[in-house]
Amino acid sequence: xxxxxxxxxxxxxxxxxxxxxxxxxxxxxxxxxxxxxxxxxxxxxxxxxxxxxxxxxxxxxxxxxxxxxxxxxxxxxxxxxxxxxxxxxxxxxxxxxxxxxxxxxxxxxxxxxxxxxxxxxxxxxxxxxxxxxxxxxxxxxxxxxxxxxxxxxxxxx
Length: 157
What we know:
Layout: E1 13-18, H1 25-41, E2 43-44, E3 47-48, E4 50-56, E5 60-66, H2 74-91, E6 100-105, E7 108-113, H3 114-123, E8 128-130, H4 137-143, E9 145-147, H5 153-156
Antiparallel strand pairs: 1-5, 2-3, 4-5, 6-7, 6-8, 8-9
Helix pairs in contact: 1-2
């Protein structure tokens, strides 16, 4: 059962899928619509999941599930992953490329290789990065964007 992401609890479990390129406005809208339709019918063992999906900043597909009543099962997570892969094929996007990091710049968001982001962070100590490993909506809302040098990203640069 689809619920607007803004109405989901902070404790809701999330998955952050970062695209390998920026999406156009029309692609973002289309992907968001398809993702919302997926979450509307998403279930675990024939029990509807209270879930949501949103495209944020034209780069991130966020899928959320409130597991207060029903946990997402292995099969339901597999179906979500399959949906994301199929959506990626449809839009010619790779949501599973982990070689790039999204950094916050004056003009918006840019994708950089880890090594490139590390070089920028050495010159700009307050460089912000989007942490794709946040696991709850509460973390997304409060800790998603953090300083590169204080995040796990710095170890890989």
